[in-house]
Amino acid sequence: MRPEKTEKNPKTATQSFEAELFKTADKLRGNMEPSDYKHVVLGLIFLKYISDRFEARHRELLKQGYRAAENRENYSALNIFWVPLEARWTLLQSCAMNPQIGQLVDDAMQALEHDNEPLRGVLPNEYGRPSLNKVVLGELIALISKITLNEKSGRSKDILGRVYEYFLGQFAGIEGKRGGEFYTPSSVVRVLVEMLRPQPDPTQGAIARVYDPCCGSGGMFVQSERFVQEHLGNKGNISIFGQESNFTTWRLCKMSLAVSGIESDIRWNSEGSFHGDEFQDFKFDFILANPPFNISDWGGERLRDDHRWEFGPPPPSNANFAWLQHIYHHLAPNGSAGVVLANGSMSTNLSGEGEIRKAMIEADTIDCMVALPGKLFYSTQIPACLWFLSRSKKSGKGLADRCGQILLIDASKMGVLVDRTRRELTAEEIKRITKTYHAWRGEADAGEYQDQTGFCKSASLELVRENGHVLAPGRYVGAEVIEDDVVDFGEKMNRLTSTLRLQIVECRRLDEQILSSLEQLGFEG
Hints:
Helix 2 (about 35-60) crosses helix 7 and helix 2 (about 35-60) packs parallel to helix 12 (about 245-260). The strands form 2 sheets. A 9-stranded mixed beta sheet has the order 3-2-1-4-5-7-6-8-11, with helices on both faces. The chain is of the alpha/beta class. The protein contains 19 helices and 11 strands. Helices cover about 45% and strands about 10% of the residues. It has 2 domains: about 15-175, Ferritin; about 180-475, Rossmann fold (3-Layer(aba) Sandwich).
């Protein structure tokens, strides 16, 4: 049995700064519930980000004259919100120790919403409530004011954005199951994004549309745009669409995207994507989603005959295959999707789920399956997997024809523990998973694909049929060969027998020592 890897990922200087900042902020929390404190802190970081961007642009425009600096179109053209005087961070910072600071922050949030329609109903607006300690609020403002200390103005936006992301993750960890519902760990998001590579088809010259039907705090979108930028693309070449049923989480998502400078169409209704599909007539090029696992109260009995259930009506007792079919329904003709689901979805036959999975396999909708290690998520200890769906697996654009095949990757033994309860995939592991997939798809820069015992297998539909349409990679990839297995059997047996003899002798010696001690105490055998 292999020893558990417990080393932590190396942290950059920026991450260390973020960690120290969060540690200090958390000390100020006192007896406040993390779920309440989260919105207090994230709202302030958001306000500083908005104000910093505005004031940097304002200083540039003042060089052209007062009229240019007061022309709002000069800000909106660069996706910068207009910040009225009473909402500017410099004013709040100067009043941080004022007993009325809570009301001043509320006034700032209201002014921002009034002057910027996309922010209406998004910002937290309860800083003046009596239960919020105003001394703590002032100290938080002073702390957040330090974010850009000794930082060049060009990096201020990046630092603030990463601080916001880091705080989101930390709050998810503190809140546990409840907090984790709005947050997908960054290593999982990176696998999804690096596998799908959301960007326009260069032969089409169109904008790629990216969608998440249960978008939480927006991590999928932030990583997607970051991927495009890192690969010499223009982030304006992708359009972002999302839906969220939790109003508070929807607000978090809107702020997350604003902090990252991402334009998007994120919609909310209390019914959610199944019963209130805001994009029912839309088709998307890329879909990334981390739906809540195994939801039993999704109202499926009211949707038995829904047109989205192409492969069979999902059971009212579990929404997993409802999510898969909703997502597949929304894929464009050449679209692809990555979905996080509980491991049980790969093998269950309960309530007709096995028949739906069989129908999806036979229709050749499944591109790749990845089994993930446990302890990746804040919200659950249930092991998870990744489903990659595709509308077209044919050759084209330099890719191999993978019709009638499914790539199965077993990453269940990967990851390092970052604390006692949670693990993360390392950058090297993410690269190995994603490069294997891209090699299998025939991408020129990924090398030649080969099955690897214990890790990956390109399975034909016939092989999957022989295995009862079960998609658990462990069933296909075989046992990983470890170094010991290459030792000659006779040599290994001799070594084990010798060890056993020594252990028997030691056992007899200990037995005699125990009996002797008992006799000295007056006990007889």
